[in-house]
# Entry
Amino acid sequence: MTAPVPASAAGGAPFSAFERMMAMRYLRPGRADAYVSVIAGIAFAGIMIGVATLIVVSAVFVGFREELVSRMLGLNGHMVVQAVETPFDDFAAVSERLGKVEGVRFAAPLVEGQALATGRKGPGQGVLLRGMTGEDIARLDLIARTLKGGTLEGFSQSETVIIGARMAEKLGMALGDKLTLISPEGDVTPFGTTPRVKAYPVAAIFEAGMSDYDSSVVFMPFEEARLFLNVENIAHALEIFLERPDDIDALRPALEEAAARPVFLIDWRERNRAFFDILEVQRTMVTMVLSLIVVIAALNIVSSLIILVKDKGRAIAILRTMGATKGAILRIFVMAGASIGVAGTLAGVIAGAAMTHYVEDIRAFVSWLTGTTMFNPELYYLNALPARLDFGQIASVAALALFLSLLATLFPSWRAARLDPVEALRYE
# Structure
């Protein structure tokens, strides 16, 4: 005699032991309906791959943005102060006042200009010449902590330069070699303005890990840079470095007051707004496209449950005749489908986290396998593929996968609950 359906299932108690047992039993492969388990396995794999892919892509975008911001702010000031109405001939006094504002690490005077650099090999290249004191450069962790050779000691009183590792490699330069700089802002003669040409020994070589800086920036002592660029008694700007870069809005009024002269302030967000806006648009579009993987996997859950309901029609009818309610049948198939989504999501989160941890090794392996340079630093600014796990983003991806998985179970489960036992058993 067949055992009756437990009262909890017949009475509609949510997710009873009987309902969980039946849901898991329907998912186990059997001889006659192995194809149902195969389709369920495909849906599981699809959700796992979709979740893992979304997590890795989100981690790369987050890491890429954070790494770019940290390196940009490691070399450039969080806020740039430029003179308005009159030349910046009082930069020393303004710099001292700004440095005393609470929340400011230091304010550094700066002269900047373009020049042509030539070395022992190569045709030469255009460079960005930045004149700063040795003390201020030593406060730039991105430079001071990434020196591959040389020293900053005595830099302010010398006639030397500091260059990046990529520039040194391209121009064939080593410590002590002379870098020839040509400035269009030269000397005025009766025959016109002649370019200024001077050779400077290389005092140090840094490797900031950002191709633009490593290949095109030359640091020169502040006073020497003013002479070379033909700038007398003024600074082009002051760069302000804050304790917390996100405090720029709160500190702006205090900085304007401390300047005590007409100035124009521009912060790092305004200077790089277009770049980061494009990066955010790319992140949003890629995430939307890759979310389709999870949607397709959810459709596989729909198809697998529809086939399961069709295959288990006789069993459903027998359960109904034994006292199972429509709600119990609905919950059985909801659990059967949702369990695929939950398992796939958990596996995807684990796989995504593991791939994120080894993303640079994966990039190197794919580059070796294909013989191509993936994530070329000349194009993407950084010399390594960064990735940062954002637990909020992981939660969002997991919630999306679980929601779509649950949504995919509703229609097949509703059809199973509406199955008429009389019609299902009529020809049995």
Observations:
- The CA atoms of residues 14 and 160 lie 78 Å apart.
- DSSP finds 18 helices and ten strands in the chain.
